[in-house]
Write the structure tokens for this entry.
Amino acid sequence: MNFKNIGLLLLALTLPFLAAKSQVKISYEVSFKQPQTHYADVEMNLSGLSKPYIDVKMPVWTPGSYLIREFSKNVEGFTASAGASALKVEKVKKNTWRVYSNSAKSVKINYSVYAFEVSIRTPFVDASHAFLSSTGIFMYPDQHLAASSIVKIVPFTGWNKVSTGLEPVAGQPFTFTAKNFDILYDSPLEVGNQEVFEFMAAGVKHTVAMYGGGKYNPERLKKDMPKIVEEATAVYGENPNQHYTFIVHNLSRGSGGLEHLNSTVLGVGRDSYATEEGYHSFLGLVAHEYHHLWNVKRLRPVALGPFDYENENYTTNLWVAEGFTSYYENKLMLRAGYLSPDDFAAELIGKVANIINTPGAKIESAAASSFDAWIKYYRPNENSNNSTVSYYSKGEVIGLLLDLEIIQASKATKSLDDVMKAMYLQCKASGKGYTDAEFKAMAEKVSGTSMNDFWDKYVNGVYPIEYAKYFGYAGIKVQNEYEGTNLPYLGIAARGTNGHLIIGAVSRDSGAWKDGLNVGDEINSVDGAEAEPSIAGMSVLQQKKVGDVVTFKVKRDLLDREIKVTLTANPNVRLVPSMAEGITADQRNVLKKWMGLK
């Protein structure tokens, strides 16, 4: 048989199927009949159906937050109809409802979502506003993730604003369109009476939607936030958006952010703007999430898009995606003038010390931490500090080291900026994400040197950080203030709880670890001295030295126990920087390139 004819036959068979898929039309209407009960009511309309049934699915996770969150657990009252006729519905998986359409071309689906988790990652509805994190609200028809959709929001009585990165539909208030589900799921919506202000930066209109009040000054923010936008855009040479939306939740206790394709959601303490430290912390959060416009959303690991919304999407490169973004948070703050060079260096030296002082950094590599994010990062336990390392923290340190390595190897002509820009352009040109091997190859191309040793030590290994070497490239002398002191070390963290001193953590290989103090133990006395409900209540330890045996009386499971602990030497570091004497011209050039000094 002629193989060319086979190909034509297959194409003829395939085209009607593709045409049938493209004809499916999807729209949503979201309303809030009783927002004080924390429900969003969703009407989903599907038309252009051709099969006897359609499977409708709810995502199980949200991109940028690597944890299976089981959004379907919040769905209630799922029904379907065609015209005036109710349709049979069968739940076939934890997140999948099968609707038997009886050959109807159009189907209406109704369901409600309970939304009362305060988080940048999950929907929330109350009497004051609605935050719609899209993966927790909108279901999708199976095999139609590429389909476009229309979203109409019906604000509750008295609400008059909707803020989102979605494209508005002309002439239809509170109605938006998404050309596929990756865009819909990457576009949260804020509904209510939020304060909204705008600014232009890098040729892009930016909208800031502030919910919850707070001691912020819009005019000051309109001057300061653009500086960060401009500096971030300068790294990559272009800004990929026509418009961008900041959704800011000002709460009594708020923290963190979640990046999206042309928007972000920030959680901020509403009073934090009132202090310079708090204000700069907010700007740092802005810098972090805005940098994600490139790093993660477009310059992305190959596994992170197109997404599988039903299963884990594994990658070993979150140390780049999140860790490098943490590093650039500081670089952008420096370049925008919100961090001094001294503070910039001190901040990063402190991050290096934190990794050295994390026992788990000797156990888990940055690549392994990234891969296991789904089961470890968002589910820490009392032993996590001993067995894991954060891909944020370790990745930030790797970004620092790699930046200095590239600057040193290139004789201060190149930096990590050049790698990031080149990888962004590569992903843009190919339309797909990068592999670890491709990222490493680009670092080698830009620096002109092999990165085998660097990757073996810091990405895939747990090699001790050579901080003196790397900071020495820039003429900065970094010393461990504890070196040679032989300080005694118990190895616990304790907290006062209801008048009792309770052990909250035990550090690997410490005396407490080796001799059997446990998390949850209530410390009653230390060498006969009654323990006060604070760690200071163990001041008797200040008179001890390495090798001394200390007797603890504890209560464990309501039983009294006596445990003798031999104090070990303090394994931690306290790093102190200073400028090296006789700094060379090469070191000065590295320093200037690293910090962007003139």
Observations:
- The chain has 15 helices and 31 strands.
- The chain has four domains: 20-193, 195-275, 294-483, 488-569.
- The CA atoms of residues 301 and 359 lie 28 Å apart.
- The first strand starts at residue 25 and ends at 31.
